[in-house]
From TrEMBL:
Belongs to the universal stress protein A family. Signal peptide: none annotated. It comes from Massilia psychrophila. PANTHER family: STRESS RESPONSE PROTEIN NHAX (PTHR46268), UNIVERSAL STRESS PROTEIN RV2623 (PTHR46268:SF27). InterPro entries: Rossmann-like_a/b/a_fold, Universal_stress_UspA, UspA. Transmembrane segments: none annotated. This is Universal stress protein UspA. GO terms for molecular function: ATP binding. Residues 1-145 form the UspA domain.
């Protein structure tokens, strides 16, 4: 039914549990997975006339976020490898994670987007799920929203 599943992660414990559930789902479907981490785009300081020396340059920021993306996707890739699921990962940059998820799903010809009902976001529980809601409203692809019954470690 599904050949290629896009699994999203933001690096949180909830997201990692959801992603591993996505890998199990892909294994059952006989599908491959593409694990996606979306990092915010580089922001220049706008309220200062001189950039502080401690502020990272764009290249340093990109390298750091690529490493962060690799760190966040590595356990999911290990899970896919152990399950015998064909896998790949990517880190993308965008100010809107939801729109980037939709774009990557289109560009990479994914049949399904697998994501959690909650992840990690600025104001905790108030905004948790906002990325999922935005993906649901901006894509025509099927989205499987995974919901944890209890927090990891609970």
């Amino acid at each position: 039914m599904y050949q290629k599943i896009l699994i999203t992660t933001d690096g949180s414990a909830v997201s990692k549990h959801t992603a591993c559930a996505g890998v199990k789902f892909a294994q059952q479907m006989g599908a491959e997975v593409l694990v996606l981490f979306v990092a915010p785009e580089y922001q220049y300081p706008v309220y200062v006339e001189i950039i502080p020396p401690s502020y990272p340059i764009e290249e340093e920021y990109v390298e750091t976020m690529q490493r962060t993306g690799s760190d966040h996707t590595a356990p999911i890739l290990r899970s896919a490898q152990q399950a015998g699921v064909k896998h790949a990962a990517m880190t993308a940059f965008a100010n809107s994670a939801a729109l980037k998820i939709v774009q990557v799903a289109e560009e990479e010809s994914c049949d399904l987007i697998f994501m959690g009902s909650h992840g990690r976001s600025g104001w905790g529980q108030l905004l948790l799920g906002s990325v999922t809601n935005k993906v649901l409203s901006h894509t025509q692809k099927p989205v499987l929203v995974h919901r944890l019954i209890q927090e990891p470690g609970a």
